[in-house]
Design brief:
heterodimer, A: 328 residues, alpha+beta, seven-stranded antiparallel β-sheet, two-stranded antiparallel ribbon, 4 helices, globular, B: 166 residues, mainly alpha
């Protein structure tokens, strides 16, 4: 007996397809240009309004000692260019999703997705990640680049994620000091002492009108810091291909393997932002706070990475030998 | 350099089908048409990459669906569509089409989407799981429960069990 439901759906398809009058293809391509122009106009309007209230003051960096690019609100990008290559692209086990409306990679309490408002583009990579060397534990990692219409929208999303974390047993919060960037959120779950079968880690960094998000679920050992080279590659591209440039530090892998040579563009430092070998090295404080508390301020590193327009090669993994990637 | 000829051909051969699919999923033809147009517009922006996908129309359908169900975009899209093209011309659909869409609206969103992807788009359970992000077992549940609920809403007693082709 024929499936009656399938027949009904087939009739629906025939009925709808036969009656609608879609816009022409030329109209669709023109719509793409119209949308881009509208976003530029909106970005200018929002940028002018926000600058008058100081909202955007945090998200625009002036660069090193006045050098470096000053983001121009009238030319904020509204699409992530095809030329931008995400971390782990092409690696076994990693998948890329270009859906601009993809779910935000970080959602501390599993509620409303606060990264959708003001978002104009997104690229999401999911894969096995790189667990710590001491255990080959299952891990799943999502690295996501979100582009917003302006810095205010990006910062609002960042702030709402930070506000949500304390309520759902996440430890951490906004990180002060020059590590990943001036506007950095880090967290780990669970914060309580109850042993958990898995832990979660998040990192959310603002780059003007973009957010870089990293979410990881780890079944055993914590993620090594070795995946940071992917972050810095992406951050460099945001500057060189999209003009979204901000100051950043370079993080020594948390696993404690100091690099044998510094990544291009910066000097290595211990967690806490102090150069290795200085009297302040060895500090273990990341500046991350307990829920509800404020982080202890970290003195900015005395070294500042250059913000050269030419992309720099990937930082060396710093002595970590690659581990087989277990399935998530 | 983007291939406008290739994109236009892709658009011409797939857009009506995608509109029907998204309409069945969201229950509003105007919303579906505008969401699909927006999704194709975004596909054009990324055409260099999208055209290399095995099924670019799946990307468009997924993006269009998410646009259509995104609450905060609905009002803006209606206003923008009105500004671009004026009031939409009413489309008269067959009573059985309207009855099916009305019945679909009464069942949970996940069940509805799974039913449309299976019976209208022709995806297997595994393919539905990949497109929706759900597990295979969850998709089977959605299909099973969705069919029962839809049969009740339509007053049909002769719907056969879904095949679980993978």
């Amino acid at each position: 007996m024929p499936d009656r439901l399938a027949e009904r759906f087939a009739d629906l398809a025939e009925d709808v397809q036969g009656r609608i009058l879609p816009v022409s293809a030329a109209g669709i391509r023109a719509r793409s240009s119209w949308s881009r122009q509208l976003r530029v106009v909106l970005s200018v309007a929002v940028g002018v309004a926000a600058l008058s209230t100081g909202v955007l003051s945090m998200s625009f960096a002036s660069g090193v000692d006045g050098d470096g690019p000053s983001p121009d609100t009238t030319t904020l990008p509204n699409v992530i260019p095809d030329a931008l290559r995400m971390p782990h692209e092409g690696e076994a086990g990693w998948a890329r999703d270009d859906d601009p409306s993809a779910a935000g990679a970080v959602n501390p309490c599993g509620g409303e997705d606060v990264t959708l408002a003001g978002r104009v583009d997104a690229i999401t990579m999911t894969g096995p990640g790189r667990p710590g060397e001491e255990e080959h534990s299952p891990a799943g990692v999502t690295v996501q680049l979100l582009l917003f219409r302006d810095g205010a929208a990006a910062h609002t999303a960042w702030q709402r994620l930070a506000d949500a974390m304390p309520g759902c047993d996440w430890g951490g919060g906004p990180v002060t000091g020059m590590v990943y960037g001036e506007t950095t959120l880090m967290g780990r779950w669970p914060f309580s002492s109850t042993p958990a079968s898995k832990t979660k880690e998040v990192l959310v960094v603002q780059r003007t009108s973009a957010l870089i998000l990293r979410y990881a679920e780890i079944g055993g050992a914590h993620l090594s810091g070795g995946d940071n080279e992917g972050f810095y590659e992406l951050s460099t591209q945001l500057c060189t291909t999209m003009g979204l440039c901000e100051r950043q530090g370079c993080w020594v892998p948390y696993g404690g393997y100091p690099p044998t040579e510094a990544p291009d563009g910066c000097e290595p430092s211990t967690p806490g932002g102090h150069p290795i070998g200085s009297s302040s090295s060895g500090s273990s404080s990341s500046g991350a706070s307990h829920p509800g508390g404020s982080g202890s301020p970290i003195a900015p590193a005395s070294w500042i990475p250059s913000l050269a327009k030419t992309p720099s090669p990937s930082p060396s993994p710093g002595g970590l030998s690659p581990s087989p990637s277990p399935s998530p | 350099m983007r291939d406008s000829v290739g994109f236009d051909e892709f658009y011409a051969t797939t857009t009506r089908r995608v509109v029907a699919q998204v309409y069945a999923m969201v229950g509003d033809l105007g919303e579906a048409e505008d969401a699909v147009a927006e999704a194709y517009s975004r596909a054009w922006q990324r055409w260099v990459r999208i055209q290399q996908y095995a099924d670019p129309s799946a990307w468009v359908r997924t993006v269009a669906y998410r646009i259509a169900v995104s609450n905060w975009r609905r009002a803006r899209n209606r206003a923008a569509a009105h500004l671009r093209s004026g009031p939409a011309e009413p489309v008269t659909l067959e009573p059985q089409t309207l009855a099916l869409v009305d019945a679909l609206r009464r069942i949970p969103e996940a069940h509805r989407r799974a039913l449309v992807l299976h019976h209208l788009v022709g995806l297997s359970v595994n393919e539905i799981a990949a497109e929706t992000g759900g597990s295979v077992s969850a998709v089977k549940q959605w299909l099973s429960r969705g069919r029962r609920a839809l049969a009740t809403a339509l007053g049909d007693d002769d719907m056969e069990e879904v095949d679980s082709r993978a």
